[in-house]
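S.,

Sequence below, as promised.
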Amino acid sequence: MSAEPTRRIVLLRHAKAEWSDVDDHERPLAERGRKDAPVAGRRLAGSGIVPDLVLCSTSARTRETWKLAVHELPQRPRTVYEDRLYEASLGELIAVINETPEDVTDLLLVGHNPGMHGLADALAGSAEGDTLARMNRSGFPTASIAVLTFTGSWKSVEHGVGSLVAFWPPHG
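The prediction came back faster than expected:
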């Protein structure tokens, strides 16, 4: 029997969106968001993280964030636009992760707060250095990225299963 694989969950909160009169789901990125999204992509590329699968919320601001970030990666990963990530509860986010195909090693979710922050906090049974404290102090700003690792099956993802190995806010 082979050892359980080490997997990575990368959480990207959408970049800064405009507050406009359109429906919340259709809010576009603000100018700052259009500048921060490629920075997030460069951060991923510089870390060597190239996800096997990206699950992106269907909102305009998450789709636009991912479109700007992915251009910074050395290759374009398979991307699925997932309705359930918009306004998802913590339980719904974990359920989506649990459905990830076993051939995926690195999964990236592009979503919203409070979900991205809550998910990172809930999955982090441990953390490297002060990573968890920094993430919780910051409140997981727009265009932030959290990286968690865990060993085992996607079906086994639950509270406390992972280690928070990196947290990158857009301006820090």
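The longest strand covers residues 6-13.

Coffee later?
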